[in-house]
Amino acid sequence: MTKISSGILMALMLAACTPTVKLEAPDKPIEINLNVNIEQHVKVEIQRDVKAAISKNKDIF
């Protein structure tokens, strides 16, 4: 009987050790801060140079 009772006792002990997972919504809303800096530089001088080169050499293209 001791083997059976020790087996039952071990089964009960293993059943008591089952892990549990709890999912809960946070109390505060999730906040995401994005600091984005976009800069654009346009070179008008290059466009003038290209126009001048095309007007001098019309057979370039």
Strand content: under 5%
Mean pLDDT: 78
For the secondary structure, the number of strands is 0
- Radius of gyration computed on alpha carbons: 38 Å
Ends distance: 101 Å
Biggest sheet details? none
Task: Report the total helices.
Answer: 2
Order of helices and strands: HH
The computed structural class is mainly alpha
Shape: rod-shaped
Low-confidence stretches: none
In percent, how helical is the residue content? Answer: 40-55%
Task: Describe the 3D structure.
By secondary structure, the chain is mainly alpha-helical. It contains 2 helices and no strands. The radius of gyration is 38 Å and the shape is rod-shaped. The N and C termini lie far apart (101 Å). The mean pLDDT is 78.
Concise summary:
By secondary structure, the chain is an all-alpha fold. Helix content is 46%, strand content 0%. The chain contains two helices and no strands.
Features:
mainly alpha; 46% helix; 2 helices
Which SSEs are present, and which pair or pack?
Blueprint (H helix, E strand, L loop, with lengths): L1 H15 L27 H13 L5
